[in-house]
């Protein structure tokens, strides 16, 4: 039996409808339009495509969107000044600095400069802490998108054994927190895990976020498991995930494709976070 495919594009459309309605409600009640500013430094072609996609999604939802394009040669100090300016601009509710940044800029310093209330990526240590202790805050878009995808598809994680493959700050760690808070039993494994295949095979849910093209093979998947592929790897001119889709879909119960899986949900959650940020700022 082949796996059921979780269609990220379709599910993202449902999410977009929900966020669109929430934005309209907010605007009617507050007479304020939520605003997102994306800063992009340099000329990474993949980043440009992604930033344009976000911009379009904002326009569709009634979110004011601005893109600040800075040259590759921008100094760290100039970038920090730009963030300070946006932090104190009350029309800007969300700030996102597109990663990766040029090598001469310290990303950690930059991400920590963004006001935690405007940090729509959820990367600021204050938001990381809030997620860890279960306090309301801004949650990283990609793992949050995975949770929304499961929710909208009617798949419960409660009581299930979830295996997160990868321990990054952007996906693996926040994914672990989100699954744990929803009562899954979570195992985190990574490149140094012994008997990695056996550990992965324990997962009723397997989230692949290791950043290695087609790393997860069918022997690593429990029959009937829910396989979520967070990987976005460019191989030649093709986009492939962290899962060897063709063979894993033979054993999985559900599987997300790449492209058309988790990616579209990530953008949906960014828009949700922009609205959430606007709400948080009005509370203060
Ligand atoms: N500060 C920051 N925040 C980010 O969230 C961030 C970032 N920097 N830098 C780059 C990565 C990458 N990322 C993607 C999100 C959605 C898709 C997406 O929508 N993918 C579609 C289309 C892919 C395609 O065709 O190119 C899909 O998977 O179907 C891709 C990539 C967010 N990132």
CATH H-level name of the largest domain... which superfamily?
A: NAD(P)-binding Rossmann-like Domain
Number of domains: 2
The counted number of beta strands is: 11
The largest sheet, given as strand count, sense and whether it forms a barrel, is: 6 strands, parallel
List keywords for this structure.
one-carbon metabolism, Rossmann fold, THF_DH/CycHdrlase_cat_dom, 43% helix, 6-stranded parallel β-sheet, binds 5,10-Methenyltetrahydrofolate, 284 residues, alpha/beta, purine biosynthesis, 10 helices, EC 3.5.4.9, 2 domains, 3-stranded parallel β-sheet, globular
Task: Describe the protein.
The protein has 284 residues and is of the alpha/beta class. It folds into 2 domains: 31-115, Rossmann fold, CATH 3.40.50; 141-263, 3-Layer(aba) Sandwich (Rossmann fold). Helices cover 43% and strands 16% of the residues. The chain is built from 10 helices and 11 strands. It has helices at residues 8-30, 45-61, 76-87, 107-113, 125-133, 141-152, 172-181, 196-200, 245-248, 262-283, and strands at residues 4-5, 35-41, 64-70, 94-97, 161-165, 185-189, 205-208, 226-229, 233-235, 238-240, 254-255. Strands 1-11-8-7-5-6 form a 6-stranded parallel beta sheet. The chain has a 3-stranded parallel beta sheet with strand order 3-2-4, sandwiched between helices. A two-stranded antiparallel ribbon has the order 9-10. Helix 2 packs across helix 10 (262-283), helix 6 packs across helix 7 and helix 6 crosses helix 10. The mean pLDDT is 97. The structure holds 5,10-Methenyltetrahydrofolate. Residues 49-50, 96-99, 121, 141, 232, 239, 258-260, 263-264, 266-267 line the site of 5,10-Methenyltetrahydrofolate. Keywords: Amino-acid biosynthesis, Histidine biosynthesis, Hydrolase, Methionine biosynthesis, Multifunctional enzyme, NADP, One-carbon metabolism, Oxidoreductase, Purine biosynthesis. Residues 6-121 form the Tetrahydrofolate dehydrogenase/cyclohydrolase catalytic domain. Catalyzes the oxidation of 5,10-methylenetetrahydrofolate to 5,10-methenyltetrahydrofolate and then the hydrolysis of 5,10-methenyltetrahydrofolate to 10-formyltetrahydrofolate. NADP(+) binds at residues 166-168, 232.
């Amino acid at each position: 039996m082949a796996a059921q495919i979780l269609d990220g594009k379709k599910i993202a459309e449902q999410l977009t409808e929900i966020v669109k309605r929430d934005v309209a409600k907010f605007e009617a009640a507050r007479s304020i339009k939520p605003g997102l500013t994306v800063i992009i430094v340099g000329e990474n072609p993949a980043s440009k495509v992604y930033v344009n996609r976000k911009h379009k999604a904002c326009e569709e939802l009634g979110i004011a969107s601005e893109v600040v394009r800075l040259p590759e040669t921008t100094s760290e100090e100039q970038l920090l000044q730009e963030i300070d300016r946006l932090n104190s601009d009350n029309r800007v509710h969300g700030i996102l600095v597109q990663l990766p940044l040029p090598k001469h800029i310290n990303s950690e310093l930059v991400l920590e400069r963004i006001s935690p209330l405007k940090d729509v990526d959820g990367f600021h240590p204050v938001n990381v802490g809030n997620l860890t202790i279960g306090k309301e805050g801004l949650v990283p878009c990609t793992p949050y998108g995975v949770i929304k995808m499961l929710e909208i598809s009617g798949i419960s994680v409660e009581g299930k054994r979830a295996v997160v493959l990868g321990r990054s700050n952007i996906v693996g760690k926040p994914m672990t927190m989100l699954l744990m808070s929803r009562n899954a039993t979570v195992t985190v494994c990574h490149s140094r895990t012994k008997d990695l295949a056996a550990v992965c095979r324990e997962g009723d849910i397997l989230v692949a976020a290791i950043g290695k093209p087609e790393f997860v093979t069918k022997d690593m998947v429990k029959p009937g498991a829910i396989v979520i592929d967070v990987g976005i790897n460019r191989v030649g001119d093709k986009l492939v995930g962290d899962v060897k889709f063709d063979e894993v879909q033979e054993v999985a119960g559900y599987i997300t494709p790449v492209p058309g899986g988790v990616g579209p949900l990530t953008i949906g959650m960014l828009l949700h976070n922009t609205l959430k940020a606007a709400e948080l700022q009005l509370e203060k």
